[in-house]
Amino acid sequence: MPRDLLARLDTEISACRACPRLVAWREAAAADPPARYRGEQYWARPVPGFGPAAARLVVVGLAPAANGANRTGRMFTGDRSGDWLYRALYRAGFANQPTSTDRNDGLSLRDARITAAVRCAPPDNKPSTEERVQCAPYLAREFALLSHARVVVALGAFAYEAVWRMLAADGVALPKPRPKFTHGLEVNAGEYVVLGSYHPSQQNTFTGKLTEAMLDAVFARAAALVNE
C-alpha cells in the first residue's frame, strides 16, 4: 500500500547521513540549543514529510529550521514560519487546529502533506546546490507515492526550483520558458497545478512582504483546485 511504502521512505530519509556539512550542522544545533530549548531532546536527523498518503495538496518548503523541525522532528513545527503556515492551513480546512508545537500536540492534516526540498537543517537556511541535488531523489520518490496529489504549493523560490526540476526529470510537459517565481503564481504542470507563495519566514513576515491575507489567498485557491 502507498501508506506503507511512504512510511518506509520516511524511515529511510530519517536515517540519511549523505551530506557531511548538514549532518554536522543539525547535530551541532542540537548540542548547543538556545536557552529556551535547553533540556529538550532534539530530533537532530533528516525530517520526513508529514500528512496522509492520499493527500491531494502537497506543500513544499525549503528545509527544516535548526531549532524548529530539527528540534521537533515534524515539518514546520515549533517555529514562527510554522505558526504562520499552520494557521493558514487551518483556515483553509487542511488542518484540524491552527497551532503546531511538537509531534504529540494532536495536529493532523486533512488532504494535505508537507515536505521540503532539503531534509536537514542547513547553516543560515541556505542549502548548497550539491545538497539540493543529493536530496532531490527523496522528493521525487515521495511524489511518486502521492498518487492523489493534484496541487503543489511551493513556499519560496528554492522550493519552486526543486519542484520544477523534479517534474522536468519525470518527463512532465512543462511550459517554456519557465514562469518566474512570484507570490500568487499559478502554473499548469501536467497533472499538477503548481502555486507559488512567498515563504512564511520571519524575513518575509516581519517586513510585510508576506501577510496572512496573502498566504490565505494561496491556500484558498489550493482548496478550490483540489475540490474541482
CATH architecture assignment name: 3-Layer(aba) Sandwich
Overall strand count: 5
Structure class: alpha/beta
CATH fold name: Uracil-DNA Glycosylase, subunit E
Walk me through this protein's architecture:
The chain has 228 residues and is of the alpha/beta class. The chain has a single domain, classed as Uracil-DNA Glycosylase, subunit E, CATH 3.40.470. Helix content is 39%, strand content 11%. It is built from 8 helices and 5 strands; from the N terminus they run ααβααβαβαββαα. The mean pLDDT is 96.
Short description:
With 228 residues, this protein is α/β, with parallel strands linked by helices. The protein has 8 helices and 5 strands.
What is this structure's SSE topology?
Elements: H1 2-14, H2 20-31, E1 57-61, H3 69-72, H4 80-91, E2 112-116, H5 129-145, E3 151-155, H6 157-169, E4 186-189, E5 192-197, H7 202-205, H8 212-226
Parallel strand pairs: 1-2, 1-3, 3-5
Antiparallel strand pairs: 4-5
List keywords for this structure.
228 residues; alpha/beta; Uracil-DNA Glycosylase, subunit E; 5-stranded mixed β-sheet; 8 helices
